[in-house]
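Cross-posting from the modeling subforum.

Setting up a comparison between two proteins and wanted a second pair of eyes on the formatting. Protein 1 (sequence, then structure tokens):
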Amino acid sequence: MSEQDLLTVRHAVRSATVAAGFALVDQTRIVTAASELARNAYVHGGGGSLTIEVLGHGARGGVRLTVRDDGPGIPDLDKALTDGWTTGTGLGHGLGGARRLMHEFDVDTAVGEGTTVTAVRWNNR
């Protein structure tokens, strides 16, 4: 994943949110969460991959983002989800902020084995 890939992520996620029928505010929430997760994979995980799925459950739809990296893993997930805590030069709002923007949020991480974040936002219209 490169800096250019981060822009590609934003465009791809925006397209998926439109396909799922999200209004502009929710589109922005999902794109922001995806950007934070992709940037974390790039900066902390040395790159990674993003899978975007448009979901349908009865009358509601949604978008699932799955971001994977083969980086060092997150040694203390509770700390990493705490606002203001960072191992880099950022503000420390990325992972926790992304969690707040989505309805479902799961982090699977192991030291030395990488991290997978799965996040879903539902369109309840």
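Protein 2 (same layout):
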Amino acid sequence: MGLAHDRTLLDRLISACAVPVNLLAARRHGGERSPAGMPVADPIMNWREVRRATAHLLPGRRYRRRLLWRYTLTWDKPT
């Protein structure tokens, strides 16, 4: 699981859909945005860069953009 930053208008529109969900989740958890002490680094790649780099490094990987500005990669090592 990772984070990517928005580069294009489409990226920004998709990410904007997560704002209401994020606010509801924070409210549900007493206003906390993340667990105390959890390290979080700012993303260094945008969505397209993540897709391209992982396609090259992990052939056959499954890339899915998730809600709340995250993506998941699933890769099975070839036998």
